[in-house]
Amino acid sequence: MKRRAITILTVAVLAAAWLLAALPAGAGLWRITVREAATAAGERVLLSEIAEPSGEFPADAWAVLGATPLWYAPEAVGRVAVIPSAKVMEGLRYYLRDAPVEYALPNQLTMRRGGRVVSGQELRAMAVETLTPKIEALGAEAKLLSVSAPDHLFADDNASVGIEVAEVQPGRTTFRYVVTGPGARILQQAPAEAVVEHFGRVPVAIKNILPKDGAAMEQIAYVYERRNLAGIKGRVFEPGDGQWRARKGVGTGQVLMADDMEPMPLIVRGDQVKLIYQGRAVRLTMLAEAMTDGAPGGKITVKNNKFAKEITGLVKDKTTVVVQ
């Protein structure tokens, strides 16, 4: 073990000496940037596995220095270790000794034995590729504003990384990265989020609309405005060709939602209707007053004008209620 350590230090010293010889006179120090996450293929961590050269670092010089063995990797394959920045610097100075380089370090280095690192940049690119067709399907004025992805993911060499998203909607959309191994076995899942902007034309009340107000169906009660749908929760009201009225009050400037509206009943409370008693051998007709609203074919309560008795019947048309 001692002889092995001496050999490693000798390699590092020779690499440093080679770099010193290659450094032009009067030139500044070469720069090495340490990654936030890295994997080690073998027992020892190599410099090239955790760092990359910056600026005009000569390729042949990096080939020599990058092969320098450093500290021990996590013992078991798949094991992860988190190394503080100070410890990383201490190890680099020990193993690289007099190499003419300066270091740019993250707050910590996350090391894994075996496998590969999928960077945050790669993860965001995957999200953009997956989400873009779904966002385009929302409409011409929908676009992806941002993606919040993990800084990195570790994956085995034979594992794949994919994205699962249930539904893309305006505003914040959650999804997840899934690391899958052989046999479709899920090895890891990581949550993520995307922000989607989507503008569209929606009906907006231009005056207060009261509950049971049939004027909500009239153009004098609302206008269409271009709004960001990200701030609208629920399904927007679509008038179509039907007759509608307000189920609950809607204030001026508010978007008309589907839950705010209901089909306009054929018979409205207070209407005078023709009440028909339809029996097996008898048929009676008299006037009655609607005590509740009634939709086509639906139940309605009416009061017989002659006997002041409330009866439940079925709406036949806008003037007729049938009791069988």
Mind sketching the topology for me?
Elements: H1 2-22, E1 30-34, E2 37-40, E3 44-46, H2 47-50, E4 51-54, H3 59-65, E5 69-72, E6 80-84, H4 85-96, E7 101-104, E8 108-113, E9 116-119, H5 120-136, E10 142-148, E11 152-155, E12 160-164, E13 171-180, E14 186-205, E15 222-228, E16 244-246, E17 261-263, E18 272-278, E19 283-290, E20 299-304, E21 310-317, E22 320-323
Parallel strand pairs: 1-7, 2-8, 18-22
Antiparallel strand pairs: 1-4, 3-5, 6-8, 9-11, 10-14, 12-13, 13-14, 14-15, 16-17, 18-19, 19-20, 20-21, 21-22
Description:
- The protein has 324 residues and is an alpha+beta fold.
- The chain has four domains: 113 residues, no CATH class; 80 residues, no CATH class; 65 residues, Type Iii Antifreeze Protein Isoform Hplc 12, CATH 3.90.1210; 52 residues, Roll (SH3 type barrels).
- It contains five helices and 22 strands.
- β21 and β22 form a beta hairpin.
- The N terminus is likely disordered.
- It comes from Solidesulfovibrio carbinolicus.
- Keywords: Cell projection, Cilium, Flagellum.
- This is Flagella basal body P-ring formation protein FlgA.
- InterPro entries: Flagellar_FlgA, SAF_FlgA.
Task: Note the main attributes of this structure.
alpha+beta, Type Iii Antifreeze Protein Isoform Hplc 12, 4 domains, five-stranded antiparallel β-sheet, 22 strands, elongated
